[in-house]
Design a protein that fits this description.
57% helix, 15 helices, six-stranded mixed β-sheet, 12 strands, flat, alpha/beta, two-stranded parallel ribbon, single chain, Dna Topoisomerase Vi A Subunit, Chain: A, domain 2, 404 residues
Length: 404
């Protein structure tokens, strides 16, 4: 009897504990499911409300569509509406890098939206550097023109270029910004006549537009230097394939100069663990889509190697070997251009030989001319008609009108 009582007591306690434990597990499961539903609802609700007010926000930010509007300006107009209707906070990164670009990709509204620079583009020899942002790239592409020699009389006789013609024959894309001091030190761009683009990771739409119209339309190759990892292959892929964010109009010639498994093995580079999100299947499909081999995929599912694993001297030698392999070399124009350049150089030398006498004569002649008594008034009149003009240009205009 005593043993039965003990067993009964234990079973009673066990049943109560089991019942309580199952109740706690059900409650925990319900909490998890509720969080999932709320997260999905939050994302969907934010997107739905954002899409519903996006045009209104853009028109307010852009002065009725008359002026360019920065992505964050649109966000500030949309955020009160979105937060008011959803009761949820709206992060600027989620709006500017996901919601707004997705809306533009889905509806193609033709808006003049400006996104931040996410890298730089540098020409060799010209000291031209632009940020890889909407406005900078737009203005650079608009100003591309045939080269021309400076006028005789300028102190520095040279060929003025706007774009690649007679100046650079390829563009080197680097997925990191930190290498430019090294490239400048060894004069990589100048010795190979290449322009260099550098970004922080995957290129933005402004960078892809530059590649599309500069390399595709001007028919110059794009050389892509990237890490040996999933992100590196993604960067390579997005520079030659249309995506939701950008559709290529041309077909730029893209040459992969990035690290590959053969380079890692040949250079004896140290690998590190790869921490890419997603399933092995999705990572595998992405790598194969962007040009990795089966052997490379097997490596990259678990490990990766950065360009930073190469010492500076090794990196430069390795890049130069790649450039040589693909026939990238200095630009030398045809005979007619060279003959014209030589003739202009001789003209400039003649001018400089006689420049001192001409300058002395010009100064003596100018000293005999008194400026108008109302010069200040005339300058102010010119500036009132042309407010964007600097005052010294106004003085030149007045002097030219007096000489007519």
């Amino acid at each position: 009897m005593e043993s039965k009582a003990i067993i009964g007591a234990v079973q009673g306690v066990t049943k109560k504990w089991t019942k309580q434990r199952k109740a706690e597990e059900r409650q925990k499961s319900a909490e998890v499911n509720r969080r999932i539903r709320l997260t999905v609802s939050y994302r969907l609700t934010i997107k739905d409300v954002a899409y519903g007010c996006m045009e209104e926000a853009y028109l307010k930010a852009s002065g009725g569509g008359r002026l360019p509007a920065h992505a964050r300006q649109i966000m500030y107009q949309a955020r009160p509406i979105i937060q008011g209707k959803t009761g949820q906070p709206l992060g600027d990164q989620y709006f500017c890098q996901t919601l707004l670009p997705d809306y533009i990709a889905d509806y193609q509204p033709g808006w003049d939206v400006v996104f931040d620079d996410r890298g730089h583009f540098n020409e060799p020899h010209t000291e031209t550097t632009i940020g890889l942002g909407t406005i900078s790239v737009r203005n650079y592409l608009k100003d591309i023109a045939p080269p021309q020699f400076t006028e005789i009389g300028c102190r520095d006789f040279k060929l003025e270029t706007n774009g690649p013609a007679q100046r650079f024959g390829a563009v080197l894309f680097v997925e990191k910004e930190g290498f430019m001091p090294l490239f400048n030190e060894v004069e990589l761009a100048e010795r190979y006549d290449i322009a260099i683009m550098s970004t922080k990771g995957v290129s933005n739409t402004a960078a892809r537009r530059l590649v599309d119209e500069l390399c595709g339309q001007q028919d110059i190759p794009l050389l892509v230097l990237h890490d040996f990892d999933k992100s590196g292959f993604t960067i390579l892929g997005t520079l030659q394939r249309s995506t939701r964010r950008y559709s290529f109009k041309h077909h730029p010639k893209v040459i992969d100069l990035g690290l590959r498994l053969s380079d890692v093995q040949e250079l004896g580079l140290e690998a590190e663990n790869a921490f890419d999100r997603g399933s092995d299947w999705s990572k595998r499909q992405n790598l194969l889509l962007n040009g990795a081999t089966e052997e490379e995929v097997a490596f990259l599912l678990f490990e990766r190697v950065e360009l930073n694993a190469l010492a500076s001297d090794v990196l430069v030698d390795w890049i130069e070997a790649k450039l040589d392999e693909h026939g990238i070399k200095k630009i030398v124009p045809d005979k007619e251009v060279l003959k014209d350049a030589h003739r202009r150089a001789v003209e400039q030398m003649y001018f400089q030989d006689h420049a001192e006498d001409l300058i002395k004569e010009a100064r003596e002649d100018a000293a005999q001319v008194d400026p108008p008594a109302d010069l200040e008034k005339q300058v102010r009149d010119v500036l009132s008609k042309n407010p964007a003009m600097p005052w010294d240009d106004a003085v030149v205009q007045i002097a030219e009108e007096e000489d007519d």
